Every structure is written in C-alpha cells, then in structure tokens.
Amino acid sequence: MKTSNQTESRITKKDINSVFWRAFTINASFNYERQMSQGFVYSMLPVLKKLYPDKEQMKEALKRHSEFFNVTPMASTLVMGITAAMEEQNARNREFDVNSINAVKASLMGPLSGIGDSVFWGTLRPLAGGIACSLALTGNVLAPIIFLLLFNVPNVLCRYYCMHMGYKMGTSFLGQIEKSGIMQKVFYAASIIGLLVIGGMVASMVSVNLGLSIGSGETAISINDVINGIMPKMLSLLATLGIFRLIRRGMKVNYILVGIIVLSILGTWIGIF
After folding, report:
1. Alpha helix (H) ranges present in the chain?
2. pLDDT for position 270
3. Model-level pTM greater than 0.70?
C-alpha cells in the first residue's frame, strides 16, 4: 500500500546528481552472475530511499534492481534516469506495472551498449590514444594528461547529461503514453526486445560443440553439423535452458560453474567435445 509520504515525494536535482556521482562505481562490484546489478543498486539508493520509506517496499525495490544488468558504463546513467522516473511513477500510482521497470531496463541494454561501445571504446579511446602517442613520441610530457582529458571529458559530460535527460525524458514519456493509453503496449514491446537481447546473447556467447562424428575418414559426418542443420545453436539453447532450470530449482551458481568446468574438461578428455 502506498503511503501519503510516497504520494507527495519528489525527486530533486540533488537526488539525481547523487545518482550521477555514484554511477562511477557501477563496475566496482562487477560479477559474472549479474554483472553490474550491485553497482546499479548502489547508484539508485538515493532515489529509492526517498521514494520508499517503507522497509518492505524498499526491499522489493532492492530485489528488483538486483537482477542482471550490463551496459556501457558511459550510457548507464541514461537507464538510471529513466528508471528513477519510473520508480517515481510507481511510488505515486498504485496501478503501475512494476514489472515494466526491469522490462524497459532490459530493452535498453542492447541498443545503448552497441552505441556506447562503438563511440567510446571503438572510436574515442583509440583516437585519444593515437593523439597521445604521437605527442609522446616527440617527448611531450603532457601526452598522458592529454589522453586522460580527451577520453574522460566527453565521458563525464555524457554521463551527466544522460542522467538528467533520462529522468526528464522518462517523466514526460511516461506521462504522454499514460494519457494516450498505450502504456501496456509499450511495456509489452519492451519485454519482447529484452527477450530478443537475451536470445541474441545466448546465440553469440554460449558455445557448445560436439567432437563426435559418424563414420571415418573423408566420409565422416560431424554430429555437430547434423544438429546445427536441424536448428542452428540448438545445443547452446539446450545448455542455457538446462542451466536456467538448475538455477530455478535453487542450485547455487558457483556449483553450476564448477560443474560446467569439470564437465568440459572430462568431455574434452574423452573426446565428446
């Protein structure tokens, strides 16, 4: 149940700036299970504490943002700004679909990572490094400082303006689509995009190759080719679904990782993989 304090709560510029400064630590607790989730939670704490004075609702918000999250760090503040706007709507409106918050986050991860990686890691960093290296070859002692400035000034500016733009855009965007009555359609589309991103990650990042074959010599037929002919990356999908089932049944992720390592070593030794 929403309290009167929550209904009257407002996120201030100071709160948004607090999230902005905390966002620099988003990779501080990076892990291979949920990646940037803990850093995201820490960054959002100033907003969440203000919106949810009730302990139970605060717990739900912390659990909500502990889900898997990964994006180019420079673009993370845009997601945080939009998320802050959505959390504010959730604190005000009892009918707000709380599941839509993570759906929107998931749908933004892929596009923002693609843009952010291309701009910052693929373009700006090599450019700044090239300029700094050319200065260093001439003996210029300012070369390292030039590199840091060329890379970090756009970095910080992008983070700052994305933070404020995300919050403002999120607020106006949510207000407009609520009035037009297409809120559910937008969130449904966002959830589909999120699933597409996860599916693409499975196909591109999970690799399961069998070393078995039927026959011998030049006429041997690879079982892996036969399975991929039925459905490409089917083994990767089955492996992912199997791991997902183990997690749903309560098995610890560390045990699963150890099991995968042992299975991979034994399978390679026997000749299965």
Report:
1. 4-8, 13-22, 37-51, 55-64, 76-92, 99-116, 125-137, 143-180, 183-205, 223-230, 234-248, 253-270
2. 85
3. no
Among 48, 103, 89, which residue's Cα sits nearest to residue 178? 89
What are the CA-CA distances from residue 236 to residues 33, 47, 201, 213, 243 (Å)? 18, 39, 11, 18, 11
Q: What is the pLDDT of residue 151?
A: 93
CA distance 227 to 268: 19
In this prediction, residue 40 carries a pLDDT of 95
Q: Which amino acid, 18?
A: S
Residues 6+ apart with CB under 8 A from 89: 96, 171, 174
Residue pointed to by tokens 């898997």: 68
Secondary structure class of 33 (helix, strand, coil): coil
pLDDT for the residue numbered 5: 42
- Please choose, from the candidates 212, 196, 218, 195, the residue with its C-alpha nearest in 3D space to the C-alpha of residue 273: 212
Q: What is the rounded CA–CA span in Å between residue 273 and residue 259?
A: 15
Residue 159's pLDDT is what?
A: 94
Residues of the chain falling short of pLDDT 50 = 1-9
